[in-house]
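re: ur question from yesterday

yeah so i grabbed the chain u mentioned. its 95 aa long if i counted rite. heres the sequnce exactly as i have it in my notes:
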Amino acid sequence: MTSPKPIVYRKLGLNPDIDFERSAIGIITVTPSESAVIGADIAIKSGDVYLGFVDRFSGTLILTGRISAVESAVQAVIHYFQNDLGYATCPVTKK
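ran it thru and got these structure tokens back, copy pasting raw so excuse formatting
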């Protein structure tokens, strides 16, 4: 999500005072759900993104940062899951 309104940050449990300046939110859901931890590690190592939320039980990963940084982090996670782990992946959508 690019340029979300502050209410979206609050509803996701993120702090809009800290995160709103960052311009984008990336949401990834993975199965098996424990893979969210691997995705979080790859994402934060790939660039300047903030790890807003990770849940190894639901497989949810939420990233915030500048649009280009979030986009790169999501692509890095998908690339690793697809090419190294052999996961089936879905296309990335932007809105």
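noticed a couple things. The two ends are 5 Å apart (CA to CA). also The first helix runs from residue 6 to 11.
anyway ttyl
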